[in-house]
Write a structure and sequence with these properties.
There is one protein chain. The chain is α/β, with parallel strands linked by helices and 399 residues long. It contains 12 helices and 17 strands. The protein has a 6-stranded mixed β-sheet. The longest helix is centred in the N-terminal third of the chain and has 18 residues. The radius of gyration is 24 Å and the shape is elongated.
Length: 399
Amino acid sequence: MAPPSFKPFGDDGTYVAGALSEADIQELVPRFSGWLYLCTDSGPDSGVPGGFPSIVKGHEGGKHVHVPVNHSDLDLALTRRLFKARATLVGPAPSTTGPLFITCRSNARAGAVALLYYAQDKKIEAASAPSPEDIIEWGRKQGLSFFSNAALVDWVMASLYFILKGPEERPRPLFHQLFEPESSTYTYLLADPESKEAILIDPVDLMVERDVKLVKELGLTCLFGVNTHCHADHVTGTHLLKQQIPGLKSVIARTSEAKADVLKEDKEKIRFGQYYLEFRATPGHTSGCMSLVMDDRSMVFTGDALLIRGCGRTDFQQGDAHMLFQSVHSRLFTLPGDCVVYPAHDYHGRMSSSIREEKQHNPRLSKSEEEFVTLMKNLNLPYPKKIDEALPRNLVCGC
């Protein structure tokens, strides 16, 4: 009898399964010409006794490919390898031949990969490709177990945009990273090159003239000025931007307790043209910090929650080191490893990083939570020199 995790996926003969016994292998192997094995075979992560070598031995006459899928290191390079593996096993879409068997330890990764193959097939079959969100919704209705794993969900969403909305379907957004030297603050301008709708992230009052000039030069309609949190080291430029750009609305998290035209909650979106940013609550530096994740998970604007090889301080504005550690690890480090990190500040001339780099090399957040909290308690940083001016004004949109 097949194990409970053995389930059909779609109507093309694909099946997914979790861990298999030797008896399961003997029963199921003859039914499939192609077998894709996703376990890393490292430590407890093995889907069959003896790991992939036992599959090779037990699947004689069939095709078998091992593509290790590590929950903690997911990116689009992995996605490409998985599609090459599918072509090796059953031929390139849409002319795939023979049933495909995808296995891992619990069937979560197998279901995630099968959903990507399903999306590729639907893109080829349909006159107009479904949206990544449509595929995700379909997957949820199938009860796929990977939706309980945030890292797999983020990687699947990134992969779906890669499959369904690549450069031939959707151009890259216009992007400008701008710098204010007094507070070492980065402001970001993103825009849809087709509709010309735009958004500014973390504008600074001292640089509003520069920002307005750039918006006008590019012929953009700037819809929103977004603050990732209520800043203490500079005054936001949103109030001045509203005076010079008709229709622009200020945006901040509701939990910041600051005033703005639009107050956002966790998981809500803000749209500009054919793109959107997803708000992710990442409190800890302050109680109202939000990070902004690009729809295709290609980049994330982390405010002060995650800096390049560092993070924001936690000793004022309802800061909490435990909360910051948990926010970064559960809301940001789940993003694909190749997701580009754009922080609100850098004091050493660096412009960006990646989720993979920060997971591996951030000297604060690569520690244990206990070590991180101790470190943050003993930073002994000076009182922010502009906090007495900036914080009251930023609570009222920079007025």
